């Protein structure tokens, strides 16, 4: 074993939360998500919207990263980014993805899988100008996921943009916008004692949601 290796087989944690009763689930997974999301916002409001976004390119190579949920409704779950970023390029090649919410304090996670589409230019523009000025400048200055010589280069770009648009609204870059994941499958997971976790899957079939309990 190398000097940098680690053995974590003896590391343990126990899950102690109450489980999910079959009759406690609502028929609509969006409503079920809303119930859990509202609780997460009460327990940890600063982190409730963090979600892992998993994509894969046309070769099938997966990649995952944390992004922030910005809004959701019955049409899907939305976030914003640079279309030329690694995730943007992957979604252009393979417009399918999965998002994962994990709320540590509640011992809960939700996986949502489906196809992805771009939001409209108007939606992107509205949200872009709701962001703090610093976030607007950073998005306009940075070509996300592309190599850069140094941090100083980025800081100089930001300074130039700030000077250029001192008295004007910063335009939303054409390469920047939003995506919406349109769900085809949800999985609600609740940690339980002895790893006998509760898992429920909502699967879309002929425009109806089928609910199934999954083995842990």
What features would you describe in this structure?
Residues 47-163 form the Pyridoxamine 5'-phosphate oxidase N-terminal domain. Its cofactor is FMN. It is an enzyme of class 1 (oxidoreductase). Residues 176-216 form the Pyridoxine 5'-phosphate oxidase dimerisation C-terminal domain. It comes from Neptunomonas qingdaonensis. The chain has 216 residues and is of the alpha+beta class. The chain has a domain at 22-129 and 172-214: Electron Transport, Fmn-binding Protein, Chain A (Pnp Oxidase, Chain A, Roll), CATH 2.30.110. It is built from five helices and nine strands, in the order αββββαββαααβββ. Strands 1, 2, 3, 4, 5, 6, 7, 8 and 9 form a nine-stranded antiparallel sheet that branches. α4 crosses α5. The protein is globular, with a radius of gyration of 20 Å. The two termini are 32 Å apart. The mean pLDDT is 93.
Element layout with pairings:
Elements (H helix, E strand, L loop, with lengths): L28 H15 L6 E7 L5 E7 L2 E3 L2 E7 L3 H8 L2 E8 L4 E11 L2 H8 L4 H9 L9 H14 L11 E15 L7 E8 L2 E7 L2
Antiparallel strand pairs: 1-2, 1-5, 3-4, 4-7, 5-6, 6-7, 7-8, 8-9
């Amino acid at each position: 074993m190398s000097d940098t290796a680690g053995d974590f087989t003896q590391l343990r944690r126990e899950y102690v939360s109450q489980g999910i009763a079959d009759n406690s689930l609502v028929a609509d997974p969006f409503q079920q998500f809303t119930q859990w999301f509202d609780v997460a916002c009460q327990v940890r409001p600063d982190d409730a919207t963090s979600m892992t976004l998993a994509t894969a390119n046309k070769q099938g190579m997966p990649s995952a990263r944390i992004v922030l949920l910005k809004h959701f409704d019955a049409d899907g779950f939305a976030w914003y980014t640079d279309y030329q970023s690694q995730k943007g390029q992957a979604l252009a090649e393979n417009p399918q993805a999965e998002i994962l919410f994990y709320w540590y304090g509640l011992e809960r996670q939700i996986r949502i899988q489906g196809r992805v589409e771009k939001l409209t230019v108007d939606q992107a523009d509205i949200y872009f100008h709701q962001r703090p000025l610093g976030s607007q400048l950073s998005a306009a200055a940075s070509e996300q996921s592309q190599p850069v010589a140094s941090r100083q280069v980025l800081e100089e770009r930001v300074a130039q943009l700030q000077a250029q648009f001192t008295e004007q609204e910063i335009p939303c870059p054409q390469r920047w916008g939003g995506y919406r994941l349109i769900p085809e499958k949800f999985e609600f997971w609740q940690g339980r004692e002895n790893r006998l976790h509760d898992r429920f899957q909502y699967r879309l079939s002929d425009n109806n949601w089928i609910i199934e309990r999954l083995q842990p």
